[in-house]
């Protein structure tokens, strides 16, 4: 009898111990913070600003007020849980600091949004250009020099490590970014400065930016499922997508739409000071939809210039004055020899399919115009980002304004 009681007691203890372990494990999985490294940075939900110099900083839930610049330095990581809202406050006389988030070389960001619970970076002022947006600086190759200083944040970027990582971004919505210091120095929705292909970027929307939605300054970062929407008539914004300085990423599913008088769908450059600078911009973009409003001073669906290469496939262009505008001798050469090419293109209400211009006027080319029709091949069955001009299935539920 005594032996049976002891046995039952032992079994009960074992059951309790098992229950306790499972409970802790479930809690850790929900928070996903069991492997984090302590940081000296102190999070203030109502005053999120400063430099994260070490360890992992976790933003768990609810709303955080961004009151200045937040810099993630080398060796540190910013982890943002599903559903978190980071809201940039308005610049005031008492606090003139520009609000933005930047990841320096060696730092990382981990945005853990989901389709049903995306992470949102927004502003208390619901106007394009109200805050700076997100800046990533990596160690991948650029053609501006061995390294350079980012035009916004002034952080160093570039190097020789094309496999570098700046972290992971999944299901993120950035609203009302694009703050401008002046006409030559403006933030984008997300600025990728020399970001390497070890970085994961999937399911990201930029909504109502006063400058470009996504801009790539060299690097090798790849992306999937990107959305840019511009509708504001007060601040019309710039290009939906933009690249320069030797970017070589591989991309899938881009959807861009503007209903206002903003600029181009894509503005693609290599290097404005040296069109032959190496590495040459040469991204691959598969499944692309660009929708304009049929007006504006730069009414090009895709502007290709200063020596960029690139490959596009399965493209839908709707409501633009010009489909492909190719400028500068190097770029037009690539357009005619197949190094700059768009296959399976569907035009919808596009006045002029292509236009082209050499670098300098030439007496042998009347009007400085050239034939760049080889830049594309047409296909009326092209689906673009997945559903023609309509909302792609992958963009439903977590985006706005689309």
How would you characterize the overall build of this protein?
The protein is mainly β. It is built from two helices and 26 strands. It has a 16-stranded parallel barrel with strand order 3-5-8-12-16-18-20-22-24-23-21-19-17-15-9-6. A two-stranded antiparallel sheet has the order 10-11. It has a two-stranded antiparallel sheet with strand order 13-14. Strand 10 and strand 11 form a beta hairpin. It is globular, with a radius of gyration of 24 Å. The termini are far apart.
> What's the shape?
globular
| Widest β-sheet, arrangement of strands | 3-5-8-12-16-18-20-22-24-23-21-19-17-15-9-6
Query: How much strand?
Result: 35-45%
In total, how many beta strands? 26
Order of helices and strands: HEEEEEEEEEEEEEEEEEEEEEEEEHEE
- As a whole number of angstroms, the C-alpha radius of gyration is 24 Å
Structural class by SSE content? mainly beta
Distance between the termini: 73 Å
Low-confidence stretches: 1-32
**Largest sheet, strands/sense/barrel:** 16 strands, parallel, barrel
What number is the mean pLDDT? 90
**Contiguous helical run count:** 2
As a percent range, the share of helical residues equals: under 10%
């Amino acid at each position: 009898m005594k032996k049976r009681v002891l046995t039952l007691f032992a079994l009960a203890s074992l059951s309790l111990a098992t229950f306790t372990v499972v409970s802790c494990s479930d809690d850790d999985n929900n928070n996903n913070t069991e492997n984090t490294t302590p940081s000296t940075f102190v999070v203030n939900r109502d005053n999120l600003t400063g430099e994260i110099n070490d360890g992992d900083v976790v933003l768990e839930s609810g709303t955080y007020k961004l009151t200045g610049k937040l810099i993630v330095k080398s060796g540190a990581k910013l982890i943002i849980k599903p559903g978190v809202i980071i809201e940039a406050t308005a610049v005031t006389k008492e606090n003139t600091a520009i609000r933005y988030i930047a990841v320096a070389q060696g730092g990382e960001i981990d945005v853990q949004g989901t389709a049903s619970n995306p992470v949102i970076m927004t502003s208390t002022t619901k106007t394009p250009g109200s805050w700076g947006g997100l800046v990533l600086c990596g160690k991948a190759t650029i053609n501006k020099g061995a390294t350079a200083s980012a035009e916004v944040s002034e952080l160093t970027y570039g190097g020789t490590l094309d496999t570098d990582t700046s972290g992971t971004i999944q299901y993120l919505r950035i609203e009302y970014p694009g703050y401008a210091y002046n006409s030559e120095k403006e933030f984008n929705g997300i600025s990728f400065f020399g970001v390497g292909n070890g970085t994961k970027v999937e399911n990201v929307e930029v909504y109502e930016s006063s400058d470009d939605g996504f801009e790539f300054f060299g690097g090798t970062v790849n992306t999937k499922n990107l959305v840019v929407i511009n509708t504001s008539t007060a601040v019309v914004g710039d290009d939906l997508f933009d690249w320069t300085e030797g970017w070589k990423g591989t991309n899938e599913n881009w959807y861009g739409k503007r209903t206002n008088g903003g600029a181009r769908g894509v503005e693609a450059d290599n290097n404005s000071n040296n069109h032959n600078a190496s590495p040459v911009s040469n991204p691959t973009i598969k499944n692309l939809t660009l929708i304009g409003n049929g007006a504006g001073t730069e009414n090009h669906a895709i502007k290709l210039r200063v020596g960029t290469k690139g490959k596009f496939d399965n493209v839908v262009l709707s409501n633009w004055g010009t489909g492909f505008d190719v400028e500068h001798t190097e770029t037009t050469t690539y357009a005619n020899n197949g190094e700059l090419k768009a296959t399976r293109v569907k035009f919808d209400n596009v006045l002029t399919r292509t236009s082209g211009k050499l670098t300098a006027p030439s007496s042998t080319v009347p009007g400085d115009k050239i034939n760049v029709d080889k830049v594309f091949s047409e296909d009326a069955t092209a689906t673009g980002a997945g559903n023609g001009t309509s909302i792609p299935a992958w963009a439903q539920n977590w985006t706005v304004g689309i």
